[in-house]
Design brief:
Two copies of one chain form a homodimer. Chain A has 15 helices and eleven strands. By secondary structure, chain A is an alpha/beta fold. The first copy, chain A, has a domain of 254 residues: Aspartate Aminotransferase, domain 2 (3-Layer(aba) Sandwich). Chain A has a seven-stranded mixed beta sheet with strand order 1-7-6-5-4-2-3, sandwiched between helices. Chain A has a two-stranded antiparallel ribbon with strand order 8-9. The first copy, chain A, has a two-stranded antiparallel sheet with strand order 10-11. In chain A, helix 8 links the parallel strand 2 and strand 3. In chain A, helix 4 packs antiparallel against helix 13 and helix 6 crosses helix 12. Chain A is globular, with a radius of gyration of 24 Å. In chain A, 59% of the residues are buried. The interface between A and B is large, with 164 and 163 residues. Chains A, B: Keywords: Decarboxylase, Lyase, Pyridoxal phosphate.
Chain lengths: 468, 468
Amino acid sequence: MNHNLRLGDERRDVLQATFDTVTQVWEGFDKARESEPELTAATAALLAETLPEQGMIHTDALGQAVDVLDQSLAQSRPRFLAYIGSSGLEIGAVADFLAASYDINLAVDARAASTLEVQTSKWLGEFIGFPNARGLFTSGGTVSNITALAAARHRAVPESREMGNTGPMAVYVSSEAHYSNKRAVELLGLGTRAVRSIAIDEQHRMVPAALEEQIRADMAAGVKPMCIIASAGTTLTGAIDPLREIARIAQTYNIWMHVDGAYGAPAAGTDVARDLFDGIELADSVTIDAHKWLFVPKACSIVLVKDYAALAATFGHNEAYMPHEGEEPNPVDVTLEYSRPLRALKLWLGFKAHGASEFRSAITKNIELAQETYSRASVNASFRVLHHRPQLSIVPLQHIPHGMTDPEQISKHNAALCSAIEKDGRVFLSPAVIDGETWLRPCFTNFRTELSDVDVLFEVIEDLGNKR
Amino acid sequence: MNHNLRLGDERRDVLQATFDTVTQVWEGFDKARESEPELTAATAALLAETLPEQGMIHTDALGQAVDVLDQSLAQSRPRFLAYIGSSGLEIGAVADFLAASYDINLAVDARAASTLEVQTSKWLGEFIGFPNARGLFTSGGTVSNITALAAARHRAVPESREMGNTGPMAVYVSSEAHYSNKRAVELLGLGTRAVRSIAIDEQHRMVPAALEEQIRADMAAGVKPMCIIASAGTTLTGAIDPLREIARIAQTYNIWMHVDGAYGAPAAGTDVARDLFDGIELADSVTIDAHKWLFVPKACSIVLVKDYAALAATFGHNEAYMPHEGEEPNPVDVTLEYSRPLRALKLWLGFKAHGASEFRSAITKNIELAQETYSRASVNASFRVLHHRPQLSIVPLQHIPHGMTDPEQISKHNAALCSAIEKDGRVFLSPAVIDGETWLRPCFTNFRTELSDVDVLFEVIEDLGNKR
């Protein structure tokens, strides 16, 4: 059975088994399953084994892998509403298979594949209305945000590459911005003391006047404003900061403006949500996770920038073993990562096979499901909703048992209910703490989720909520 | 043709086409192709198209993707000797297909898949001789190194998460350490001034006495030693720093010791190279890129750590929408990234299907090819080699045209030759600048490379080198 790490004479069997498995898996995802299976004793034993020194029949190994996957929480399933995640676009999974086989590295020029990456990032700019930008694929929203922040620091303090953080700097985010932004600031050696949490309005959007006031105060105190991070779709409620007003402030004070649109930015490509993103084209950089609301398998994030030279100034170097030809910097000179898989292929093939129109439709459908969820909950006495309709596709809900009025008790009830829902397994939700209270937080970012799944969502919440 | 982003009634056709394509691709990789094709006009036109609004027959789209891939430089091909990269392990590509379909997120507990990640990192620790460690998969060596450095900073200056870099710190690397380590130090806001390039010996290994001297000088000057990064397989020559001696120094001065074994560490699992890694088990953390010398498709890096709690202290937080149950931190609390694909599956399935023994054999074979290359070049008057045999599988070579003796002229000749080899396309090499001189730098990290490819390597170098 030793084939020198090739599948050898088992190639045909393994590919046939893969073909059959994936067909079944995709058919299984067409409808939700009624519950999540427990970990079997056999799988538990399998996952406790020590390193196997000898191989086994490859199709048997494949079968074991599938058992593990089936006993895991997969975001591809239609009732996984817990996080803003991807949903394993079928043609995207095929693309990952191809990309993995060729295993191209986009660190230096890899010929056609390098051009494909550039093209796909342009397509994404066209899709969201951020034209004439260059983009680079990264391993995730955190790395995209870090890339943008590093460029912002370099613009604010050019000597920082050599000298480090030489004085106090500040980064401005809304008080509900994603934690990864704070983590990025920590990583950059600025400390959380550099984070300015700007007040939000009743729709959870950054208040521009508060932003401007803080910037003036910092400048007066000798603190250098480094970057304004506007959220275009917060993780908690899907709020979109007022981008045009923030851009005006960024220009007034000459501060790098980054839009963290990891989750929300693709909605800018739809008729129903486009207006919410007015002004996004004025940003210096935008993060979009195609592995969130463009449905392709993770990881597939993109950072789009206006000033490509700013990235080269931040990351460029002359490595002794990297060929540098011509004027154009290698990707390795403008990004954080060295080994760069062909992440763009899954989005490229998705746009090719389905057309941008199907993506717009699927995003619009998610927004409609969120609106429907909000509408149903808002007329149901067993539920409390936020005062405003969802801007995108996240719908915080509280289940209110009959007669319960104490906010603290309601929070505890919803936290316990969320755990019960997770154990039940018909739908999967995560909790959200908003203004100190615990909410349930269904997120619609899966192209497989249907109206019938919303029915089940309400059934499960009421069923388990009223039992407690 | 609108299937709501599913393949719908084209599923069977797409899977059959994928099956046929991958079979041909793998058969194509069994032997090298004799030249690299030029970009065709059709592909160039394809890659200049704007965003397609409507979809197309899916198998046609797939065909276009394969055309692009075939006109790209793929590391999977047997004569791609340019960088220490992966080679698209066949069963690993299958695993990526499955993982992409399920699209599990390992940020929080995903049940069986989460256990599989833990198990695979333990296997890797067993394989390289770094036992009783916990590991986490990351998107690449740079992110793994950054993760370790962030933990090292937190240990050296615990208040840095809040306060940032409050005073001067120093990071110690050999003068030939991978540039990603310097980039990581820059990113962390320390500036390159914090990097201490420690002298190397004639085998390009860090000199422990020079390290200790520098640490003492820094401490005397009020600079806080933050981390020693030992290279276990440098990118330029494959040198392995003396790990046991460095560990003794790290312990003496209570400094975090990180081993950057991104490329080389898997060789610690072989009989022929194990002794070179003596002392690796004493490190605080180790980076291993399974997408380098464990052959799986990129990206699949692992950072192994002794003190898991140090990661939690560095990255842990209480995010409002993440369920935290029990004592065990979620992966999102101990790593940089939030969205975490199931990268472990390809390595798990590789070990399952082939057994650790086949990996050991393939690594050993790469080392033998490197030794053979060194031997042949050292007895051939047209070549110059380094004074010592390769420690791992990188073999710097200079082609010396008859009668050429001026080092500067020889460097220029080899730089031009490297470009000519790249254009020729029979083999793919990258240059290396070592001690100011330009060398050719064949790297053997591909399980598909055979002795016959070494024959071609010499043919091509002599053929093109003597023409110039």
